Amino acid sequence: xxxxxxCSGCHISLLDLHDKLLEVLPNLEIVYAPIVADPKEIPxxxxxxxxxxxxxxxxxxxxxxxxxxxxxxxxxxxTCAAYGGIPGLANLYTKExxxxxxxxxxxxxxxxxxxxxxxxALEEYVKPISDFVKVDYIIPGCPPTPKMIADAIVALxxxxxxxxxxxIVCDE
Length: 172
Ligand code: SF4
Fold this sequence. Notes:
binds iron/sulfur cluster, alpha/beta, Rossmann fold, elongated, two-stranded antiparallel ribbon, four-stranded parallel sheet
């Protein structure tokens, strides 16, 4: 699992499985999940990668290519990964407009100074991960329901095709 340009809500939805997680977890080996631990490297040979969030900066873009190279199945997990989602509202503005707004508020330290080395450079726009790599499945929703996430994981564990909604907005 990874969070790119997202809000963690998709991860929280997974945790919302509560005790049902106990049924799923024994069958999984979680090898990379920066939101719960701080692994330095994405390991090779991942079966399924759940990607939350779209691509906002150069680091996101680097990571999604590495994820694709090292994973058999890549899942766009939630609306942000699949379509850009709420962060995509930033696409109403240019990159320069965003930076000049964010770094000039009264609550900003060193007001007016836009960091250039400490943070990865922004892409021009927020984009879905499918603009960069092949995506095998989309789990839609903002966030996807816990049941939908669990059903998809269980299906993949059983070697079956996950039954996922085809609608962009999920009202399940
Ligand atoms: Fe958050 Fe919704 Fe995006 Fe998931 S899809 S990261 S819940 S904004």
